[in-house]
Amino acid sequence: MNKLTIGQMARANGVSEQTLRYYDKIGLLKPVDVDKATGYRFYSIKQSARLDMIQYMQSLGMSLNDIYNQLKNCDVKLTKHVLEQKKLQIDNQIESLQHQKIALTHAVENYERYESSPPDGTIVLEFIDKRWIYSYKTDTNFYNFGIEVYEEQLRKMKEDMDSQGLRSTYFCNAGSTVSHENILSRNYVSDKLFVFVDIEHVPEKLVSSIPPNTYLSIYCNKFEMEIPYANKLLDEASLRNYTITGDYICEVIVDLPDFIENERGMFFKLQIPVKI
Q1: Dist CA 3 CA 9 (whole Å)
Q2: Are residues 136 and 104 in the same domain?
Q3: How far apart are CA 44 and CA 31, in angstroms?
Q4: Which residue, of 80, 143, 199, 210, is most buried by count of CB atoms within 10 Å of its CB?
Q5: How many Å apart are CA 140 and CA 93, to the nearest integer?
Q6: Angle between helices 6-13 and 17-25 (to 10 degrees)
Q7: pLDDT, tens digit, 9 for 90 and up, residues 190-204
């Protein structure tokens, strides 16, 4: 047991010979002796304690570079500080993963909604519960132009969300609104863009709500068909003698991975709150 070959040391500690060679190369764990003639490495069983410490620190998420510095300096306070920083990093990673999981859940739900939605042009009457949004006031009426200006406005909203510290996972399925006054006169002026958010994870001051209501809705799958379909929706409300009680909402159910001439593929639902 005075000297172990690299193979014996590796087997005794459940690591590979390649790992020990790498640790030797970076100065993390050097053999006690190297045969000058053959280049064979020999280790002491006592070095297993250092290897245990290396493996333990790795299990805590520390990098080999951090481990090297800690073992070199033998500074307990510095080691504790590094571990505290690593714990904080893991906490942030956990929080990020939780948000990512929520976003994935919403994405799957939206694709399921897309799969179960009625065909393009279908009008439905439905109750929609309260929804929470983050909104951005547009500075250009994209209805006067086209999808290029719509994309420009989305870039501005994305930048605005970034400045407010909102996670990028919320930047999907962005919707738009037209004020109650404008929609009654069929004056299509884009009032604001919005994204749905989780009230639990976004500062309350940044959030507003869309109240629960009965909505007359129509499904649409082309950007250029929004206004014709919105007019069709308003005609239907008039025909049924419904009273429009709030803002017009265009909710993008899903952004589709289907790009024709680089244009965003969307399936969305146009909605007007009504009183029957």
Answers
A1: 9
A2: no
A3: 8
A4: 210
A5: 38
A6: 110
A7: 879 999 998 888 899
